[in-house]
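Lab manual, section 2.4: Encoding a predicted structure.

Procedure: take the sequence of the chain (450 residues), apply the prediction step described in section 2.3, and record the output as structure tokens. A sample record is shown.
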Amino acid sequence: MKKKGRIILLLIILIIAAGAAIWFFWFRGSKAAVGDELAFVDSVASITGVGANGVNNRFSGVVEPQRTEKVEVASGMKVKDTFVSVGQEVEVGTELFSYDTDEAQDSITQLEIDIENYDITIESTQAQIKQYEKERDKVSDDEKMAYTTQIMTLENSIKRAEYEKKSKQAELESLKRQIANAVVTSTLKGVVKTINKNNSGNSDDTNASSGMDDGSDDSSNAYMTIMATGDYRIKGTINEQNISDIQQGANVIVHSRVDESITWNGVITSIDMENASTSQSNSYSYGNDNSMSTSSTYPFYVELEDSTGLMLGQHVYVENDNGQTEERTGLWLPEYYLLTDENGEVTPYVWAASDNDRLEMRGLTLGEYDEELMEYEILDGLDTSDYIALPMDGLQEGQGVTRNVDQMDSSDDEWLDDSDGVVYDDSMDEGMLFDDQGSLEVFDESVPME
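Recorded output:
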């Protein structure tokens, strides 16, 4: 019996050892076989621009003018009359304000007298130099040096007088031009945004500024600012955590907040990384407590193909144009995710993450090809829940993968705030928005929003 018991114990030990070996070589050995470096994989939902539940990232934006003209009061001048008011529309050539020319005219009279006096001084000094030169010719060599010194002193006096005369002449011409252009006119078609009487040149005008609020800051020395009309652009904001979601030169779609069906097309012309704003706000997610977090947001600008229907100061949503407005169904994948053969030809294979987080070469069934967007329709082999890697040298089957955890969790029971601006679920009767401070809002699409 003891011998039989030892045999059973030995068998148990062998089974345990065999199991450990299988675990080590099967589950860990494959990683060791291909090296310790992990392959990074991204969500197909994120790559195609639409999440598994139909979620698109959107960012808040506001309509602003392409150009703002700042009109300053000329140096030494004062505003006499103002012919426009804040909010008034102006055309090219519309009279804005006029200068008080009374003091300028008095200054011109005084400058003319000063210039005449300089002419008299120069003429008199030149005559004196000629007289000294005549006398110098008649004296001894020892006395000539004294005359020469006097002549040089007088010549320097003439140069100083000529310099002062030129300065006065320039000032005179400037004042004459100002009087000739005493009425300042607009150089563009637009709307008067601000009138700052503190910058009118009149010391008695204090705390007398007025303006219309368009969300921009005007802290310049301008007496008046005019916003151009007709040519609008969109100023959007994006959070530091997902600033990589947009790129300069990328096509975007601008959505009306009031009517989802109204859109405009544009291109991101710039992303201002130098003027970040920092705010501290609550972030929310279903099933989790809210917490305070600090993050920076950056402005970016969109040039529109056509701004018809937009109003200055109107708030809008901006999202990347991934072809989602086109009438096409199915899953469309950028062709650069597909593997190529030795001749550079696209093949129906991708590097995909398997269920046990190992890299595998997965075959696909391809459909149509969109030449404009350079995307293939995927008929079979992938769906939005899969993760794939960009084809790169060194990738091998069985290699471990790491998923991009920055992707928004689009599970049925949890939404995460992953963007500055808006996350919108168009698969539900009620949409969900994260406002500019990261706070969660629930709204009914049937109710217009401002």
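Check your result against the sample. Helices lie at 2-34, 44-47, 102-136, 141-180.
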